[in-house]
Write a structure and sequence with these properties.
The protein contains two helices and three strands, in the order E-E-H-E-H. It is an alpha+beta fold. A three-stranded mixed β-sheet has the order 1-3-2, with helices on one face. The protein has one domain. It starts with 5 loop residues before the first strand and ends with a helix. GO terms for molecular function: hydrolase activity.
């Protein structure tokens, strides 16, 4: 983990493999789009079983957690 960062870590259901993605846009509207893009990509790449989104502040982490729950 990056020192001073926040991590929203979830296993995405029905998708497998390992990889990482860094969240850079903290906007509430960007998080659902990013999660959708990640899920779409993972459908094409079943070898990936884990994605880590590194958020640099608490509000960005909350946006991603909400998008992952939605």
């Amino acid at each position: 983990m990056i020192e001073g960062g926040y991590v929203a870590r979830r296993r995405i259901p029905a998708l497998r493999g390992s990889g990482q993605m860094q969240a850079v846009d903290g906007s509430e509207k960007a998080a659902p789009s990013a999660v959708h893009t990640i899920r779409s990509f993972l459908k094409e790449h079943p070898e990936i079983e884990e994605v880590q989104m590194v958020c640099f502040d608490e509000i960005t982490k909350k946006y991603y957690e909400n998008a992952l729950d939605g």
